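During the reporting period the student researcher (J.K.) took over the structure-prediction task from the postdoctoral fellow and processed the backlog of single-chain submissions. One of the processed entries is reproduced below for the supervisory committee.
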Amino acid sequence: MNQPTLDKSTFMEKRTWTRFSPVERTARFIFYFVTVAVIVVSLQTIEVIPEFLLDAPEQIGDMLNRMWPPDVSYYPSTIHEAMLETIHIATLGTLLAIVMAIPIGVMVAENVTQNKALNWFARLILVSSRSINSLVWALLFVAILGPGPLAGAFAIAFRSIGFIGKLFGEALEESAPGPIEALRTTGAPWFSIMTMGYWPQVVPTFWAIVLFRWDINLRESAVLGLVGAGGIGVALNTALELFYWDRVSMVLLSMLVVVAIVEVLVTQIRKRII
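J.K. obtained the following structure tokens:
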């Protein structure tokens, strides 16, 4: 029986390989076009002055010359006490945020609080907290409580509610349902389910969130003094207003050292907790 002879051309069809499909190429073109358009519109909106931009390197050099060497004598007289106040503001603000964020995080977790009205109310609080900057919160509390570190602590607290509450609520929603169902089957009350079912699963994540937020709050507290909310920002603002650039550099250097120490400390604590 004769077998049919197959032409090699049937196996060697000419194909053109392209990296992107026509739809992908069109999408990439639209993305690049929109990006360039946004950049052009933004540059026109912020009104870049070429003369000032060209003069910037010279101004930076002049400022650095004035900032060096730092005025070391300014640290014991002013910076040390202000830095301790900044740490206290960040710590107290974080503690207040924890107290307020835990119930909100519980309300926002849909597997814990099965009430849509409470879920949306909690989400509204979290979004409101995150949408307002710390400096704006500080301005509001300075107007309410007067200038000082108490206004700064409340500003840090209300700013941190959204961060801690959102991540804590997400950790609750990601909890394994097995232990929860077991406790509910035995007729355990809601408080026991929270303390013995949810909390053991989220406690490492919770403390990691708190430590991370405290680290952020320490950085944010450093500038609250610019609007009268106490801390190292007051010393920085005073030095800036009097054009004591050597004192400004000493304040910035002190902030850098403290933030670096706190970063190492938080990292070590997180390694031991998680």
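The committee noted the following: The chain has a mean pLDDT of 83.
J.K. will present the remaining backlog at the next meeting.
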